[in-house]
Model the fold of this input.
Amino acid sequence: MKRAFIVAATSFATFAYGLTATATEPLVRFEGGIGVDPVANTGVTNTVKGVPPGGVPWAIQKLKVNIKDDGSISASGEGLVLAATDNIGTRGTIAQVFATLFCGNDAFNSPVADFSVGGNFDIRGMLSAVPPAPCATPRLLIRRADGNHAWFAAGTLVD
Done:
C-alpha cells in the first residue's frame, strides 16, 4: 500500500510539474539594445509610441529581456549610461527604471527596478496586464521611473 501511494504521488507530481512547465510560453524576446538619441537626424524629437526621449544621448552595453505569454518579465541591462554631459559614463541622477512592452499601440509596464550608478538593472515580475498573444509589432523601451518617464534604451527584437 505504501509503495503504491509513493508511485501514485510521484506520477501526480510529474504530471503537475509538466503542466506548470508548459503553462507559460515565450511571447517575445529582446537581446541587445540601442541607447536613445533624443533628436533624430531630421531634427525631429525621437518620440516612440508617444514616449519622449531622455534629454541627452544614452548608450547601453547589454540588454536581455524575456516576456512570457502570462505577462511575466525578466530583464537585465548593463552599462545603460549617459553618452554626454558632465555625468558621461554614469546613470546621472536617475535611480530607478522600468520597461514598457508595446504590442501595436497597447502598452504594458514592468515593475520598477533599482538602477546602479554604472547603469545596471534587473527587472523581475509581472507586466501591468497580460499582453495579447501574438504581440503585434512588439517594441520595448527602458524608461526612467520618475519625472516624465522618458525612454533611454530600446530592445532589439529576436526573431
